[in-house]
Write a structure and sequence with these properties.
By secondary structure, the chain is α/β, with parallel strands linked by helices. The chain has 15 helices and 15 strands. Bound molecules: iron/sulfur cluster. Residues 11, 14-15, 18, 20, 22, 59-61, 93, 116 line the site of iron/sulfur cluster (SF4).
Length: 388
């Protein structure tokens, strides 16, 4: 089983906080579609014949294209890769969900939709420089539901300085009222060189507060869990049976192929990432040159990645699986590492950041607030450059 991700970098405007590879321009829009099809053909052997189980069109804003154009790319993928996709997701921005667009989707294979709502308050959307209104956010969900689509995920952002706790609670209530089976909630982070970073440094926008972010996270966790959602990954909540299969691939080490500028791929041995310049990507694809850089992962890197990603999920970090996947963990010359792992987990349990059940380690509610730091405590020595 494997997955394919397609990156469409075009956006109508650039959100202040965005650090994805995205372009507020439509230049080369049709050239990109042709290049994506070509890359889908050229990368036929990357996943070594594994059956494709999930496909995800993300960005950027894939819905900048008409539905039938996205379907063309999807068909090229299905012709060139052995696939029985159970989940084909399309990321959409609320302003694109017109009645006509939703009708056109009926002629495509998409069966799951992820909508970047972020907030139901106009002032937050302006603060973030989103391209849609609060009304459009809700009607996007209703339109899809009216057409019979129910496998819908929405994204919310917390920690926005313009959001007080009462308004954040209202955002979560409105998300619940939409009866969508999947909700992702992300903390607003200020990435270097984004517009948000620059505006904060110039004193034009307020810096998000960590305390507010923590309070918002605790509130959404409580409210969604009480409403029956499973908190299956730190930033993701789903009603039973609606966990994102594609994103779960990233967390459980399943192999995936990324198509499009800046898209990443992983085949268990190496990780590769496509160039993050559209013209470069187009030229290289056109001339048949490789359009990616590649890094072979050391077993230490893979080990640390397993610890990091598994701890973030409700399945936890399984000590036995760790030893099965990384036999060097059992070897004598790493016995020091093993005892270090035991000492580190013991300390984290004492600090109520970790709990253990039958050899599987889980973040506690407190531990979830310090997930990266907790994971770093369990890393193999060479990568232990962060601490709590
Ligand atoms: S819509 Fe998404 S990808 Fe586009 S600018 Fe906003 S955050 Fe970035």
């Amino acid at each position: 089983m494997a997955g394919i991700y397609i990156h469409i970098p075009f956006c109508k405007q650039k959100c202040h906080y965005c650090n994805f590879f995205s372009l507020a321009s439509r230049k080369n829009q049709s050239e990109l579609l042709e290049a994506l099809k070509k890359e889908a053909e050229r990368s036929r052997s990357y996943l070594a014949g594994q059956l494709i189980h999930t496909i995800y069109f993300g960005g950027g804003t894939p819905t900048i294209y008409p539905a039938e154009k996205l379907q063309e790319v999807l068909e090229t993928i299905l012709v060139n890769h052995p696939a029985q996709p159970a989940e084909i997701t399309l990321e959409i921005n609320p302003e694109d969900v017109s009645k006509e667009y939703v009708e056109a989707l009926k002629n495509t294979g998409f069966n799951r939709f992820s909508i970047g709502i972020q907030s139901f308050f106009e002032k937050d959307l302006l603060w973030l420089n989103r391209g849609h209104s609060a009304v459009q956010a809700e009607s996007a969900v209703y339109r899809l539901q009216d057409e019979g689509y129910h496998n819908i995920s929405i994204d919310l952002i917390y920690g926005i300085p313009s959001l007080d706790p009462g308004q954040w609670e209202k955002n979560v209530e409105r998300a619940l009222a939409l009866k969508v089976p999947h909700i992702s909630a992300y903390s607003l982070t200020v990435e270097p060189y984004t517009a948000l970073d620059i505006l904060i440094r110039k004193g034009k926008l307020e810096r998000p507060s960590e305390e507010a972010s923590i309070a918002h996270f605790k509130m959404i966790r409580e409210m969604l869990k009480s409403a029956g959602y499973l908190h299956y990954e730190i930033s993701n909540f789903a009603l039973p049976g609606f966990e994102s299969m594609h994103n779960s691939n990233y967390w459980n080490g399943t192999h995936y192929l990324g198509l499009g500028p800046s898209a990443h791929s992983f085949n268990g041995i190496s990780r590769q990432w496509n160039v993050s310049r559209l013209d470069d990507y187009l030229t290289k694809n056109h001339t048949g040159q490789p359009c990616f850089e590649i890094e072979t992962l050391t077993s230490e890197q893979r080990y640390n990645e397993y610890v990091m990603t598994s701890l973030r999920t409700s399945k936890g970090c399984d000590s036995q699986k760790l030893s099965d996947l990384f036999p060097f963990r059992k070897a004598e010359d790493h016995s020091q590492e093993n005892s270090r792992f035991q000492k580190a987990t013991k300390k984290l349990i004492e600090r109520d950041l970790l709990r253990e059940e039958n050899g599987i380690f889980f973040l506690t509610d407190e531990g979830q607030l310090l997930a990266d730091g907790v994971a770093a405590e369990l890393f193999l020595s060479s990568d232990r450059d962060r601490s709590l």
